[in-house]
Amino acid sequence: MTRLVMFSTKPYDRRGFDAEVEGRPIEIEYLETRLDVHTVSLAAGAFAVCVFVNDDVSAPVLEALAAGGTFVVALRCAGFNNVDLDAARRLGIQVVRVPSYSPNAVAEHTIALMLSLNRHIHRAHNRVRDRNFALDGLVGFDMAGKTAAVIGTGKIGMIVARLLWHLRCEVIAVDPFHDEHLTELGVEYVELDEALQRAHIVTLNCPLTDETHHLIDERSISEMRRGAMLVNTGRGALVDTSAVLAALKTGHIGSLALDVYEEEGDLFFEDRSAEIIDDDVFALLLTMPNVLITAHQAFLTTEALAAIAETTIDNVLAIVDGSDSAHHV
Ligand code: NAI
Predict the structure, then answer these.
(1) What pLDDT, in 10s, does the model give residues 119-140?
(2) How far, in Å, from the CA of 205 to the mean position of ligand 1?
């Protein structure tokens, strides 16, 4: 039996993984705690650890994993910005991920945020529950005819672009690689500054890399059309949140939807309703009527969870079997 220790486990993870491992030569030890230098010893002796987006897979953690006899870090997500890949290579630890589980899930959530924010659905719902049927303050805009810029047209961004096209937006895109199906639809690829200047809606669907860190900062915001909507379901650090907050205050950014946040590691995935949030930027965002935040749930569909479990277990067992079918980072 291969032993896999899973960090940051939630009940919805367990359901997918329990179903997946039934009858297979692998046993999972589920831990609720996050992986970091303090908790890494819990994995001692395990062939593999399974981690999520906010687990700390930095060099010191990898060194402790290697010392404890762990050979595989299995990410149950697509992004791998939280892993020190150089250290993993040096230590001979293999890093695998789930390159694609349900790009539809993330793309659909991106559009859900956009439409909800535009038409104030979250505020309208609260009003109606309070028997406040006034409409003042709930004016949105027609999506049809608006220019929407998709930054990153990979697996997720490509679907976002298509959905926006179906909403009859003028879709423009930024990506070093041009998707020919999108260009056939009439999507125009432009440089980032031009996209920001033209777009009423900007959606970030690229990975977080050294190059894309703070892609949206004070300088790039100054290129944006006044009053534009910014949507980020990619990774938090794609935007300089303080710069975005300043632009929301002046109205330069008209509205903001986030599923990811730069400092989410200390906030998301837990019930903090009885705590004081010691993050002034985040706390201010929560007070704004034109800001809509979900806590990294774009991936959270039944289909995506099942696909994540399947690929993760296949990845680990492929390495055990010496097959080359694992999805290495
Ligand atoms: P992908 O690898 O299929 O596509 C990424 C695209 O971004 C590629 O076409 C790439 O050329 C492009 N890109 C890279 N650098 C760029 C730049 N500087 N400007 C413009 N485009 C650039 O990745 P996929 O599956 O579409 O995922 C995108 C990101 O979405 C992931 O890296 C991850 O961070 C995020 N994500 C968020 C989830 C959530 O629950 N909120 C769930 C899954 C992914």
Answers:
(1) 999 999 999 999 999 999 999 9
(2) 5
